[in-house]
Amino acid sequence: MKGAIFDLDGVITDTAKFHFAAWSQLAADKLGLDLPASFETELKGISRIESLERILAFGHLEDKYTPAEVEALAQEKNGYYLKAIDTLTKDDILPGITRLIEELKAHGVKLSVASASKNAPFILKKLGLFAEFDAIADPAKVAHGKPAPDIFLAGAQAVGLNPSDCVGVEDAVAGVAAIKAAGMTAVAVGSPEELSQADAVVPTTADFSYDLFETTWEKAHQ
Ligand code: B16
Ligand code: MG
Fold first, then answer.
1. pTM value?
2. Looking at the DSSP assignment, which residues form a beta bridge with residue 170?
3. 63: annotated active-site residue
4. Whose CA is nearest to atom 5 of ligand 1?
5. Is 44's pLDDT higher than 90?
């Protein structure tokens, strides 16, 4: 393993609750919808615009708004979200992640971020982790969101590595699919049933380690 390509939301910090709160506020205030709790999981790893499209489809509102109005609604949600994540500090880094980054760096593993979030640089700065990564792939520059491989391929390319030399790290079904489609080894956090496509699944980020990543990568290349 020469590189580790990280998802952000749900892997480095838990922003899903803030995304869901912001979408719920938009849905209630602007769309007249009560968003079911299942959307918190369903929208993990899904881009901002596609998330809104799914919410509009849920409310049978897909034909109600012009593309410009849809864009304005997405921006409004992002405003609520930015206000919420302004409170993030290093205390919001998920368990084991700071240690994992140290271990990987000590073994010369290159680190990059492959998040669907356009707010990834802002969030990493808030967490005090921005300087730890060698690259952050820009989701605005890739053609297709997760589960397409594009953002993970961009993450590997940004650190000059072949995807097969990299482990991708995810918490979402769409994200694990993207890692596998990119030809990388997938280490995931969450439910083994839901994330069955991954090469290894652990229950919490505290279980991540250099050894887990390296042995999973080696097994996948036997
Ligand atoms: P933004 P990840 C994803 O991040 C989130 O899981 C998803 O819920 C969100 O809609 C998406 O980022 C876009 O985020 O609105 O900040 O650009 O899990 O790929 O790190
Ligand atoms: Mg995620």
1. 0.92
2. 188
3. no
4. 45
5. no
